[in-house]
Design a protein that fits this description.
Chain lengths: 440, 440
C-alpha cells in the first residue's frame, strides 16, 4: 500500500511516523511545499523572544531521521494538480500515485484587508521563515515600537515575548475584550489587567483603518487615534489551507475546512485529513468546530495512522482545552464558554469564584480564579476557565478530566480526593469549593 | 439539640462551624484538652523551618471568632469520664450532657520503645507546643546535628525544613526504603536520591538500639554504627487518640481507631467520629483503612455536620491522595501501591515511565516519572505515583480524578484533552503516554 501525505507539519509527520511504527511495509511519501518538516510552531513566539537561540530546536525531528525510518519526503514540492478519482497528484510535472491520501496542509495566517497593509513590510508568525524573519528584525535596536494585530493566543504570547526583550508592544483588537471566543468576560478582564500591568498597550474595540509608511516609521490610523510604530505583526487567526481542494469532490465546511468523520476520513473513502486544515468534533456538543490546536492534531494523526494501518481507532473529539502562560500567570480553559452555551440554548448554571493557591502561612500565596459552567439538564460540567499564577495552573488538568469524562456533578465528585500539602494547596482546594457551589 | 464535640482540631472545629452554618439553633460545645483550637498542624514543619515567623498563623481561626459564631469552647479540659448510655461527660468535675457526641480526638505521635529514649529530651511534631519547642531549640547555634526517627511525611518535610536552616540532618528508618507504605520502590528510590543529593544523611534498614546522653550530646547507637547528635525528633507515625474509649461500648478497630460508617456514625446511633482518631473507607477496596490526612478530616467533618443537621450526606471514602514538596521536587500519589494491590491478590498491570515536563526548547525542562497501576479485571486505574519538579507535579490532579471516578481505561481516556502550551507541557503529556502504555 502506498500512502501519500500532503503536508509535513505536526499532523502529517505524526501520521507518517505512526504508520511506519504500525507497519513498516506501508510505503509513506510526504509532499511538503516548504523546505522543512515537523515544525513545532508553538515555539515560534519563544524563539522570537530569545528564550532559545538555536532555531533548529523548533523541529521535532530532522528530514534525515524521518528518511531513516523509511519515510520518503519531497521538500519544496507544491501540488500542481490533484486527480482524486484516479488517485494521483501532479508534483513538479511528475505524477505521484497513492492508495490512500492524507491531507495535512494545516492553516495559514488570516490576513485582514486593511488599507495600506500591502505597502508596509508586515510580519506574521506561522511558518519557520516567519520566525526567522521576525527575530532578525526585532533584534535591531531601531525596532522598538511593535504593533500586533489580534489578541488571540499568538498575539498574547508574542506580546509577552517581545516585552521580555524590552520592546514597546501594542495590541489592537477588534473585539471589546481579549480572546472573546476562548474566554468569558471575567477571564478576559483578568487577562486584560495582566497585560496592562505588564505594560502592553491595549487598543480593544478598535482596529486599524489604514497604514501609512512615513520615513522609517509606520503610522497606524486606529479608529480613535494615530500611533507610530516600527513594525507590524498580523496575528488575526488562521484559516484552513485548503485552496487546492476548493473545487474538488472533497466536502468542505463553511470556512473551507475539510470535513472528516470520527476516523479521520473525509467524504472520500481513501482520503483522510487531520490537523489545522479540517474541522473536528466538539465532544460536548457533537457539532463540528474549527479548533486549530496542536493537541488535536497529534491525536488525530494517531487515529488516522491506525485506521490506515487497519488498526481500528476513533477520534473522540475535542473539548478545546488550552493553557497559556502570560508573564507570571497562567490561564487555562476547556469546554464551552458561558456565551457559547447560551448561544446553543443550553440550560446552564455558572459559578465564578476566587480563592487561594495554597496555605496562607507560606510565601507565594496568590489568587486563583475559577469559572465553572454546568449543563443543568444533564448535570454535567461543560465548561471551565481558570486564571492563577503560573505554578498553580496545572491543577486545571483535573477540571479538564471532569469535562472530558462527562462526570455527573454530585456529592461524590464534590469529595474528590485531590492531594494536599501546604506548598501546593489547601485542604479544600478551589476545585472543591467551586464544585460545591455549582452542585448546590 | 445539644452537640458536644471532643477535640478542637481541624475535624472538631470543622464539624462545629458547619453545624452552625447549617442551623444556628443547634447548641455546639467543644471540649479541648489543649489550650487552643483549629491548629493547621501541616504547617508545623514549615514553622520550624522558619518559612514564617508568626506561630499564630498556624491557627485557622481564633477561639473568639468561633465564640462569635455561637460555638462554646472549653479549653484545657480533659474528659474525666464518659457515660455513653446516659449521654454525659464529666469534665473538671462537672457534668456535660449531650444529644449527639462527636469524637474528634485526633492522633498522637507514636513513640517507639527505644532504650534510653526516656533519658534524652526528644522532640516530636504534632501539637502546637511541639512546634514552639522544636523551633526554639533548633534556633540555638549549638544545635546542629539533628536525628529524625522515621522517614514518613513529617520526617521528610521536617528534614527539608531543618536543612533549609542549615542543620545537619540524619534520618533513621527501620524499613529498607523511604515511606514503603505510601510509595512503590521506584518512587522511594527517587525520593532517596533527592534526599541524599540534598545532603540528608539516610540510615535505611536501620534503627536506634539505644540512646546515651554524654555531656551535651546524644549518642544514638544504630545497628551498625554510633552517631553523635545534638537533638532527636521522633516522627514514627501516629496512632489514634482513643484511650478514653478503650473499654466502652464504642467499636474500635485493631489499631484502636474508631470504626465509623459512611455517614460518620459510630456503632452508637448518637455518636459520630471523624479525622485522625477513626478509620475510613478506602474507596478502591471498600476496606477500612487508617489514613490520618487533613483532606479526609475536612471532608468527614462536613459529612458529620450535615448528618447531625438532618442534611443527608455521605462520605465516599479516600484514595489516600497525597503530595509532598521535597526541595525542588514534588511527589504525589493516590490509590493503591503495587505492593498493596498484590497483597490483595488484585490482577494488575503496571507501567513506570519517565518523560519530560514541557517542550525541550524552553529552559527548565526536567524529568517526570509516573507509575500507573491498573486492575486488569475491572479495567480501572487503581493507583498512581508521580515524581517531578515541584512546578510540574500538579498535573497529578488529573490522575487522582481518574482514580476517584473509576474511569475505564480505553482509547477515549487515552485521548483526554489536556491543555498544552510550551511552558507547561508537551502535545502528548506524560499522562497520555502512560495511559497509552497501560491500555495496550
Amino acid at each position: 500500500m502506498k500512502v501519500v501525505i500532503i503536508g509535513g507539519g505536526a499532523t502529517g509527520m505524526g501520521v507518517a511516523s505512526k504508520i511506519k511504527r504500525n507497519n513498516n511495509n506501508i510505503e509513506v511519501t510526504v509532499i511538503e511545499n516548504g523546505s522543512y518538516v515537523s515544525l513545532g510552531a508553538c515555539g515560534l513566539p519563544y524563539y522570537v523572544g530569545d528564550e532559545f537561540k538555536d532555531s533548529k530546536k523548533l523541529f521535532a525531528r530532522s528530514v534525515e531521521k524521518f528518511n531513516e525510518s523509511g519515510i520518503e519526503i519531497h521538500l519544496n514540492s507544491s501540488i500542481e494538480k490533484i486527480d482524486i478519482k484516479n488517485k494521483k497528484l501532479i508534483v513538479k510535472n511528475k505524477e505521484i500515485n497513492f492508495d490512500k491520501l492524507v491531507i495535512a496542509t494545516g492553516a495559514e495566517a488570516f490576513i485582514p484587508s486593511i488599507k495600506g497593509l500591502d505597502t508596509i513590510d508586515f510580519y506574521k508568525l506561522t511558518k519557520y521563515e516567519d520566525g526567522i524573519n521576525l527575530k532578525a528584525i526585532v533584534e535591531k535596536k531601531e525596532i522598538n515600537n511593535i504593533l500586533i494585530i489580534g489578541a488571540g493566543f499568538i498575539g498574547m504570547e508574542l506580546a509577552e515575548n517581545l516585552k521580555n526583550i524590552n520592546k514597546n508592544v501594542s495590541i489592537v483588537e477588534l473585539d471589546s475584550r481579549i480572546a472573546s471566543k476562548i474566554y468569558d468576560e471575567e477571564v478576559s478582564d483578568l487577562i486584560k489587567n495582566n497585560l496592562e500591568q505588564n505594560q502592553i498597550n491595549l487598543f480593544l474595540n478598535n482596529s486599524v483603518k489604514e497604514f501609512i509608511k512615513k520615513d522609517n516609521k509606520i503610522i497606524a490610523k486606529l479608529m480613535d487615534r494615530d500611533i507610530k510604530v516600527d513594525l507590524v505583526v498580523v496575528a488575526s487567526g488562521f484559516r484552513p489551507n485548503t485552496r487546492l481542494f476548493e473545487n474538488t469532490e472533497l466536502k468542505l465546511s463553511a470556512n473551507n475546512a475539510i470535513i472528516v468523520d470520527d476516523y479521520g476520513k473525509t467524504n472520500i473513502d481513501y482520503i483522510y485529513s487531520g490537523g489545522d486544515c479540517c474541522v473536528i468534533k466538539n465532544k460536548i456538543t457533537n457539532n463540528h468546530c474549527y479548533s486549530p490546536l496542536a493537541t488535536v492534531a497529534s491525536k488525530q494523526a494517531k487515529v488516522i495512522a491506525n485506521n490506515i494501518s487497519n488498526i481500528n481507532s476513533k477520534f473522540y473529539g475535542s473539548i478545546q482545552s488550552s493553557i497559556i502562560k502570560l508573564f507570571d500567570s497562567g490561564v487555562a480553559r476547556a469546554g464551552l464558554t458561558e456565551k457559547e452555551a447560551k448561544d446553543l440554548n443550553i440550560n446552564i448554571k455558572t459559578v465564578f469564584i476566587k480563592d487561594k493557591n495554597h496555605t496562607h502561612y507560606l510565601d507565594g500565596q496568590s489568587d486563583i480564579y475559577l469559572k465553572l459552567i454546568k449543563n443543568v439538564d444533564t448535570n454535567e460540567l461543560i465548561g471551565a476557565q481558570m486564571y492563577s499564577n503560573k505554578n498553580s495552573i496545572l491543577r486545571f488538568y483535573s477540571i479538564a478530566t471532569l469535562i472530558w469524562n462527562k462526570t455527573k456533578l454530585n456529592e461524590e465528585i464534590e469529595q474528590i480526593d485531590l492531594p494536599y500539602s501546604p506548598p501546593f494547596s489547601r485542604t479544600f482546594d478551589i476545585i472543591h469549593i467551586a464544585l460545591s457551589k455549582i452542585i448546590s
